[in-house]
Amino acid sequence: MAAAGSAVGLGNIWKFPYETGANGGGAFLLLYLLFIVVFGASLILAEMVLGRASGQNPVGAFRSLGGGRWPLVGYLGVFTGFVILSFYIVIAGWTIAYMGFMLDGSLISGDAESIGAKFSAFISGGATPVLLAGLFMIATVIVVLGGIGKGIERASKLLMPVLFVLLLVLIARSVSLPGAGEGLRFFLVPDWSKVDGGTFTSAIGQAFFSLSLGMGALITYGSYLPKTTPMPGSAAIIVGLDTLVALLAGFMILPAVFAYGLDPAAGPGLTFVTLPVVFSQMPAGAIFGFVFFALLFVAALTSAVSLLEVVVTYLVDETRLTRRPAALIAGCICFGLGVPSSLSQGAVDIQIFGMDFLTAAASLTDLLLPIGGLCTALFVGWKLGPKSVALVTNNGTQRFALATVWLFILRFVAPIGIAYVLISGML
Ligand code: PHE
Question: Which residue of 82, 139, 218, 409 pairs with 413 in a disulfide if CB–CB is 3.0 to 4.6 A?
Answer without folding.
Answer: 409
